[in-house]
Amino acid sequence: MIAADVIIVNKLGLHARAASRLVNCASGFAAEIEIVRGTRSVNAKSIMGVLTLAAALGTELVIEADGPDEQQALEAVVALFQDRFGEDE
Amino acid sequence: MTLALTGHAVARGIAIGRCHLVERNELDIGEYRIGVDEVEREIQRYRNAVEAARRQLEELAGRVIQNVGIGAGEIIQTHVLMLGDSKLQDSTEQHIRREFCNAEWALQMQLEQILSEFRSLDDAYIRSRGEDVAQVVRLIQNKLNEEAADKPFENMPDRLADTLVISSELTPGELAILHERGVGGIVTEHGGPHSHTAILASSFGIPAVMGVRRAQALLREGETLVLDGGLGVVYADPDEAIHSHYHQVQRITRRFKKSLEAIRDLPASSLDGQLISLQANAERPAELQLAREQGANGIGLYRTEFLYLQGAPPEEEDQLAEFASAIELLGGIPLTIRTLDLGADKSTDYLDFSQLRRCTNPALGLRAVRLCLRDTDLFKTQLRAILRASALGPVRCLIPMLTSVQEIRMVRFLLDEAREELDARSMAYDPDMPIGGMIEVPAAALAIIELAPHLDFISVGTNDLLQYALAADRVDEQVAHLYDPQHPGVVRLLRYIFREANASRIPATVCGEVAGDRQYTRLLLALGLKDFSMHPGRLLEVKQVVRETDIPKAKAALTRWFNTTSTETGSSLLKVIDDSQRSG
To answer: How far is A55 from chain B (nearest CA, A)?
Structure first.
């Protein structure tokens, strides 16, 4: 298993559109991908799980990936966070 | 007598029309036992219903993306993701297996559990996503019971242009169907400003008031209603004063839209006869199409980040295919492709965590061309794709976030390598493809004289440039008030850029948000800008201002403002320039 820290840098946080893009991206990999906020952990391939994290601007999260393509999965998910989920803000 | 009902003002606009009440049929969800031998059949029945719901929503999402845009379609796609979410699907199937009950009931039990999770959250926006889950579950339940299902559109006319639809609630999918039928406005009893239906109404441009209590009971089928989506009011049986007021507001709005339509095919030339180039920022097919329809002179900013957010980095051929289809859609107008502008550290050693943490300020870190110059294989793959695209049509290459001449030299060196690699493979490209730089770094802006000899054009990214120049993040609400395009320092910086670019004889474009904001059009013209690039939906509004501007007068007003600004700091620059247009 590998992991990386991310900080939410888009203004709206993990709102529905960003969450959808995250779930779509994560679902493209075989690896299990978990998003951890404090003591809570959700499946990155579950839209409802990701939404209930209620992660706003500035929230620190840990992404964990475990599986054959964990490296690419983690890179793709981290890139998505840093690119503000493709939003301008 | 006029009856005024109030609710949440969720989508601006005026609608006047006939009231249509939607008859909704609440499904009665009961629990019944099934035999052990019926479990697999029940699960299959459940899966079929989910599949039917998915087909319906995906088809709708596809139409919305095509006709309205990707953002609106994504809202409906969120519901598709919820349909297949393991939290719903797996646990519903487990419930059927464990409790030997019908699928509708198992689904209801899961819904209640998920809703209680959402209700416990502090964030009002996220909390209201529980509504989306409830809507998705109801859709599946309706698919499980086709005969008893809720059919809100059964008694509804096909054309709704002069109709206001009143319903207890509406899902985003239902709203999309109403939009296709040209609905005039909507009123719902439930749902708030954070609901996806509200967000979608706003992007469709449908005036809407939500959360109007007892609307169904108080309004009558067929009566005339006036709806003010900006105020959050719906009037029934409006008196003469209300009627004529809103008719006039509607007339003014229509006249504005018509005045824009009227100049669609006219040139963007100022009153004093200067021809201004108006380009579009676009990458998705729908936006490219819109850009052409609105008469854009080219695509001034084609972003490529979307290619990099699908797992593995895109191959040269994949990128070329995207560029080629854009070129084909554009039918001969130039395409300016911006190289990768990601902020992520995607080089192979990026999983060195200590280094990742060190990137505490992404805006000032390893991003855009800085990243590309570090991961040269990634960058050259893209450069080869762009070069090959240049053989297919007029293509320009734009390098984001340039800081120094040294960086341009490195980019040019890599371009030479890319050309040699293509020569070795006998691939065609335009040897004279223009190379431009995005001016976003303030120090680069002040070094235009040094950068210009190495570039064929510049494009000023005002969003980032202003943010860096004012040291204020425009999306941070606490400092957003400092983000001011009229700040004298910003105005001087822009004047310097355009003046020096002109003296160095290289063309300059602005592709930030101010380029598409009609209140800044005259200021930019006064500063000497001749090429704007903006969201394609803004082209006509900006063209209208260009056509109503006398540029020499605006320039004179700007000079006067610079000379008096130290004594009259309170005077608004935009107003001074606007006033200059009225004097004889």
So the answer is: 9
Which of B78, B122, B303 to probe the A interface (max A CBs under 10 A)?
A: B78
Delimit the CATH 3.50.30.10 region(s) of chain B.
3-24+153-259
pLDDT at B354: 36
All CATH 1.10.274.10 domain ranges of chain B, comma separated, are: 36-144
On chain B, the residues whose CB falls within 8 A of the CB of A5 are 353, 356-357
Per residue in B287-309, pLDDT (tens digit) is: 898 899 999 999 999 999 878 87
Give the CATH number, domain containing residue A58.
3.30.1340.10
pLDDT digits (tens, 9 = 90+) for B77-132: 899 999 999 889 999 999 999 999 999 999 999 999 999 999 988 888 888 899 99
Could you tell me if A68 lies within 8 Å of chain B, comparing CB atoms?
no
Question: pLDDT tens across B486-523, in order?
Answer: 999 999 999 999 999 999 999 999 999 899 999 999 99
SS3 B234: strand
Contact of A62 with chain B, judged by CB distance below 8 Å, is answered with: no
Percentage of chain B modeled with pLDDT above 70: 95
pLDDT at A87: 67
Tell the CATH topology of B3-24+153-259: Glucose Oxidase; domain 1 (3.50.30)
Catalytic residue IDs of B: 196, 511
Per-residue pLDDT tens over the stretch B308-323: 876 678 899 999 999 9
Sign of CA dihedral B180, B186, B190, B193: positive
Residue A2 forms contact with B (CB below 8 Å): yes
Packing angle of the helix pair B70-83, B196-204 (nearest 10 deg): 150
Q: Check B312 against A72: CB less than 8 A apart.
A: yes
Q: A-chain residues within 8 Å CB-CB of B87?
A: 43, 46, 48-49
Best mutation site among A12, A37, A52 for testing chain B: the one with the most B CBs within 10 Å?
A52
pLDDT surpasses 60 at B189? yes
CB contact under 8 A, B74 and A29: no
A56-67 pLDDT, tens digit per residue, is 888 889 999 999
CB B389 within 8 A of CB B330: no
Residue A47, Cβ density class (10 Å: 0-12 exposed, 13-18 middle, ≥19 buried): buried
* H-state helical runs in B145-239: 172-180, 196-204, 215-218
Split into its structural domains, chain A has a count of 1
Residues of chain A contacting B353 with CB distance shorter than 8 Å: 4-5
With CA atoms as reference, report the closest residue to B475 among A87, A81, A80: A87
Question: Is the confidence at residue B353, as pLDDT, over 50?
Answer: no
Contact (Cβ atoms closer than 8 angstroms) between residue A16 and residue A75: no
- Is residue A24 less than 8 Å (CB to CB) from chain B? yes
Q: Is residue B350 scored above 70 in pLDDT?
A: no
Fold exhibited by the domain B36-144: Enzyme I; Chain A, domain 2 (1.10.274)
Query: Nearest C-alpha of chain B: how many angstroms from A18?
Result: 10
Give the span between the Cα atoms of A9 and A13, in whole angstroms: 7
Structure tokens at A18: 């960003």
Structural domain range at position A24:
2-86
